[in-house]
Amino acid sequence: LRRHALGRFRPFLSAVSRDPAMLIWLDSNQNVRGAPNENYAREVMELFSLGVGNYTERDIQEAARAFTGWHHTPDQTAFEFNASLHDPDPKTIFGATGNFGGEDVLRLCVDRPACATFLVGKLYAFLVSETPPPAALLAPLADRLRRSDFDIADVVRAVLGSRLFFSAHAYRRRVKW
Predict the structure, then answer these.
(1) Whole-angstrom Cα distance, residue 8 to residue 151?
(2) Given phi > 0 = left and psi -120 to 50 = alpha, else beta, which region is 146?
(3) C-alpha span between 175 and 177 (Å, rounded)
(4) The pTM is what?
(5) CB 102 within 8 A of CB 70
(6) pLDDT single digits (tens) 100-119
């Protein structure tokens, strides 16, 4: 697996994955070997990295196994990895097979081309227009995000300095308040 793929996005995705509030909210302490809980695996793919339609149910099931043992401390203040509750067996996620853990799932998600497209779409919706543009409009930004090793600031600068705000898909679409 390529180690650089997470780049600058890695600290964010890893921190979210280990945040006690996230672990509590998504029942991570119930995610154990033999009885994986799919809540976090689904959320990391659907909401944080890939978007709906860019993974299969099997990918979710296998990723849930990789996240087994990712728990919070009894006082709910910190992340802890419980190796005795982790499923160490091989898993197949996005066609790759290995003895994956949670960090591997994050790397595999970010390695997918859909990740950059998903993130750029979120930035576009936040900064420019909530009306989704044609995919061709976002493709150069997604490519830039991948080439910059997921440097979000670089893409934000590119968007803010672009003519996207004047495109037919965005002009006068944001409500001022």
Answers:
(1) 6
(2) alpha
(3) 6
(4) 0.85
(5) yes
(6) 999 999 999 999 999 999 99
